[in-house]
Specification:
Helix 3 packs across helix 4 and helix 25 (752-776) crosses helix 30. The chain is built from 31 helices and 33 strands. Strands 10, 11, 12, 13, 14, 15 and 18 form a seven-stranded mixed beta sheet that branches. It has a four-stranded parallel beta sheet with strand order 2-1-26-27, with helices on one face. It is flat, with a radius of gyration of 35 Å. With 894 residues, it is of the alpha+beta class. The chain is 41% helix and 16% strand. The model is unreliable at 644-651 (pLDDT under 50).
Length: 894
């Protein structure tokens, strides 16, 4: 085997065919130890990109690892196949969305197979098939029966280019652009179908704290999107317009409200814009809700503060949002930073009405007012300058003021709005409703599902509106003429439950088999992009909760653990077709092999972090796999250096063999835990370092055959989840039976903590030798002695670590075997006392002796001198005095 590489094309093709012939990834329905591993299914856009490859390598590696651990793993794949891009592509190509979509699926499925992803393809789902979207329609009926569906006239986000409604989450950036085509979004009033996710708002936010396997950033994004705030609604009487309700979480500050503010699209603001040029100019041209500074315009109106009776000026301000609270707010610049900045700009009074609670506050004395001239005081505290409420703590004042002000009422506000699912396009699930002049909107009966899409009509607007024959139908209730609903469902409906369909994809009676779903769900490990942190994950949580209530699911959250993988970048920038900086996964597979691409990607960074694609890194990874292949093939071919002097099984091990055996165990002990935590880069570093150790071992000594073979065996198994094809090839080369994908994960006789202590000891000892050689200017050492500390020092260290006594020396001297060491014990005790905060457990004296003996060959090789490892009892006292636990004494003979 040359260092140029191995025939990756032949190896990968061979094992992909072997896996398929043996159905190794097929998962039975009934299992004992279910583990569900899932990557977010892709939109079939044409070809896989590097983001796909990273996502699916993560889940594939973890699924393979769990299989080797003995789990029954469900690892399926499907296609998020509906959506506007397919419709647009079909129009551009004068074809139909279905043909275009399935062509893309065929291409991407082939690429996935070429990457060696171990999916159970028998469970494949494709959301644009009637067999799947029938159950979207069934879900719509179930939600309707549960009182969670409503059709109402609503102001919606409308993309004039896509000619469809967008959810709030699909409107992006300061310029409010369509997430698909970057066209500025308009607002329109349309009849829309809504799923009432707001009915579950409290549970959706309360349950976030229980999602301990999710990234904190994702959990916070969901909290922010739901946006629950407990507070009070209170009316301010606006001159000429009557009472206007404001929402506030800080009614305890109402005595400090020095102005009133309206959102630019508040009805009063719009009315004023028709009458006042300055207001019109601000509302239509100057307001910038996403700007860095709050801006506004004075209206000339006043509002009456209901707590004080004072008249305060009314402004239209762009920091007031109509979808947060009521679109009107009482502004308290002394205690809100945004209000403070606005008041300074507009010359409005800033008055303190909350003071910090003093440390020695007696609950009665009113504290002095804080200085709020430069910045607002925003914490809770003690109410001041507020009449009879002065002296109350903030929480009590909020309760009292809400009770006492006639118009005030305790309330909870949410940023979350109901989920508008209506889309005016063709390539989606038809909403199963017909409209009858006599009966109104009527659900299509379950036995008539699915309502299938008609043939595609290439037209502007919604093609379903042009499908006249398809639209004409009869009313299920009265039998009279009726018209089908021409809106289709938001594609997030498809992805809100697809993970349930995988457990019983061929079931024609129900969307999912309840018993199987309760066995497999929730998904143990879910992986996907951070861009889905709000929409997809929130909708999936909502649908799961409804199905738990209505259909008997035993879980209320769909995903136990979530990993949001980082981006694959090129020179610090996200890969993008528009930028022209993409790397073709297929080229990498053709040139270097799928295993090389997978290994480079997984070793480059932790999965949740972005990393830069590097061609040199890919080449280096390919060279590593070639070196590993050489090691195994040379061993299997009967490397003369491994023949030994006699029977291999009876050959004795020396200290070098012991070191390598320890490092094999160490790699297993650490790599398993890192695979568990999905920190693949650390696990792979252990596997690669082990391969490096085995190469050094072969070059330095005559390896012990059993030890060397076990090292190769373990290295192959540790790498198998990430480089499955080559691992299978080398597993066979080693003469092992069966597939490595079905092999047991290797076991170790040592734990990770012991490994880390041993490695720290060896590394520190080698560094100490280097330092002495350098400082003393020793060019050619004759011998290096390494002396382990005496047992009493290990006892003293253990006592010091466990002790909480003020006088550690006295506690140590209470032990006779330490006390009898006299000045040496006192000196060591003082060192321990001085460094108590930094003390940590080491190996025992015997363990240190054995570890250093096993590693002595590393020092011998580095300094070309014999190394003698000694116990304290066998060494000179002058040297022993310098030895400490974890830091043996070094004596170099020139």
């Amino acid at each position: 085997m040359s260092q140029e590489g191995y025939d990756h094309t032949a190896v990968e093709k061979r094992w992909q065919e072997a896996w398929e012939d043996a159905s190794v990834y097929r998962t039975p329905d009934e299992v004992d130890n279910p583990t569900y591993v899932l990557g977010m299914y892709p939109y079939p856009s044409g070809k896989l990109h590097m983001g796909h490859v990273r996502n699916y390598t993560i889940t594939d590696a973890y699924a393979r690892y769990r299989r080797m651990r003995g789990d029954d793993v469900l690892h399926p794949m499907g296609w998020d196949a509906f959506g506007l891009p397919a419709e647009n592509a079909a129009k551009e190509r004068d074809t139909n969305p279905r043909d275009w979509t399935f062509d893309c699926i065929d291409t991407m499925r082939g690429q996935m197979k070429s990457m060696g992803f171990g999916y159970d393809w028998d469970r494949e789902v494709t959301t644009c098939t009637p067999e799947y979207y029938r159950w979207n329609q069934w879900l719509f009926r179930r939600f309707h029966e549960a009182g969670l569906v409503e059709r109402r006239d609503a102001e919606v986000n409308w993309c004039p280019s896509c000619e469809t409604v967008l959810a709030d989450e699909q409107v992006e950036g300061d310029d409010e652009l369509c997430w698909r085509c970057d066209t500025p979004v308009e607002t329109r009033d349309l009849d829309q179908w809504f799923l009432e996710i707001t009915e579950y708002a409290d549970e959706l936010i309360d349950a976030i704290d229980e999602l301990e396997g999710w990234p904190d950033s994702v959990r916070q994004m969901q909290r922010n999107w739901i946006g629950r705030q407990h507070g009070s609604e209170v009316d301010f009487h606006v001159e000429g317009h009557g009472p206007v309700t404001a929402f506030t979480t800080r009614i305890d500050t109402i005595h400090g409200a020095t102005f009133f503010a309206l959102a630019p699209d508040h009805p009063i603001a719009e009315e004023l814009a028709d009458e006042d040029d300055a207001v019109h100019e601000f509302v239509h041209h100057e307001a910038d809700p996403e700007g860095d500074e709050p801006n506004g315009v004075e209206t000339g109106l006043t509002a009456t503060n209901p707590a004080t009776g004072e008249e305060i000026p009314v402004f239209v301000a762009d920091f007031v949002l109509s979808d947060v609270g009521t679109g009107a707010l009482m502004a308290v610049p002394g205690h809100d930073e945004r209000d403070h900045a606005f008041a300074e700009k507009m010359g409005v009074d800033i008055e303190p009405v909350i003071a910090p609670e003093p440390d020695d506050w007696d609950g009665e004395t009113v504290p002095d007012a804080p200085d709020v001239s430069e910045a607002a005081f925003t914490d809770d505290g003690v109410v001041i300058n507020s009449g009879e409420y002065s002296g109350l703590d903030s929480e009590t004042a909020r309760e009292r003021l809400t009770e006492d002000i006639e118009s005030a009422e305790a309330t909870t506000q949410y940023r979350l709005r109901d989920w508008g699912i209506s889309r005016q396009r063709y390539w989606g699930t038809p909403i199963p409703v017909v409209h009858c002049d006599d009966c109104g909107s009527v659900l299509v009966p379950e036995e008539d599902l699915p309502v299938e899409l008609p043939e595609f009509i290439n037209t502007t607007g919604n093609p379903l509106d042009a499908a006249e024959e398809w639209k004409e139908t009869t009313c299920p209730e009265c039998g009279g003429p009726a018209t089908r609903e021409t809106d289709t469902m938001d594609t997030f409906v498809d992805s809100s439950w697809y993970f349930l369909r995988y457990v019983s994809p061929g079931d024609e009676a129900v969307p999912f088999d309840l018993e199987r779903a309760n066995d497999w769900m929730p998904v143990d490990q879910y992986v996907g992009g951070i861009e889905h942190a709000v929409m997809h994950l929130l909708y999936s949580r909502f649908v799961t909760k409804v199905l738990a209530d209505e259909e008997g699911l035993e879980h209320r959250e769909p995903f136990t653990n979530l990993l949001a993988q980082g981006m694959v970048q090129l020179e610090g920038e996200k890969m993008s077709k528009s930028v022209g900086n993409t790397v073709s996964p297929q080229r990498i597979v053709d040139e270097y092999g799928a295993d090389t691409a997978r290994l480079f990607m997984m070793q480059a960074a932790q999965p949740e972090r972005d990393f830069d694609w590097s061609e040199e890194g890919v080449k280096s990874t390919h060279r590593f796999l070639a070196r590993l292949t050489d090691l195994v093939e040379e061993y299997a071919a009967g490397d003369a250096s491994l023949a030994g002097d006699g029977d291999a099984e009876g050959a004795d091990r020396d200290t070098v063999d012991d070191y390598v055996a320890d490092e094999i165990d160490a790699a297993v002990a650490i790599a398993g835990g890192e695979y568990d935590d999905l920190t693949f880069n650390v696990a792979l570093r252990e596997a690669q370092d082990l391969v490096g150790t085995l190469r050094s071992y072969r070059g330095h000594a005559d390896p012990h055959p059993e030890t060397y073979e076990r090292g190769l065996d373990v290295a192959v198994r540790l790498l198998a989840p990430v480089v499955p094809h080559l691992a299978e090839e080398l597993w066979e080369t080693l003469g092992r039976d069966g597939f490595v994908v079905e092999a047991d994960w290797p076991t170790a006789t040592v734990d990770r903590e012991t490994v880390e202590k041993r490695r720290r000891l060896v590394a520190n000892t080698r560094e100490d030798v280097r330092d002495i050689v350098e400082v003393a200017g020793i060019e050619d050492p004759e011998r290096i002695d390494v002396v382990v500390a005496p047992d009493w020092k290990y006892d003293a260290l253990s006592i010091a670590i466990d002790s909480d006594a003020d006088n550690l020396i006295s506690e140590l001297m209470a032990e006779s075997h330490i006390r009898e060491r006299g000045d040496d014990a006192a000196s060591y005790g003082q060192d321990l006392q001085a460094n108590r905060e930094a003390l940590r457990e080491t190996l025992s004296g015997d363990e240190e002796y054995e570890a250093l003996r096993a590693a002595s060959w590393l020092i011998e090789r580095e300094f070309d001198a014999p190394v003698r490892v000694e116990r304290a009892a066998d060494a000179d006292d002058s040297v022993v005095r310098k030895a400490e636990p974890g830091r043996p004494a070094i004596d170099i003979v020139e």
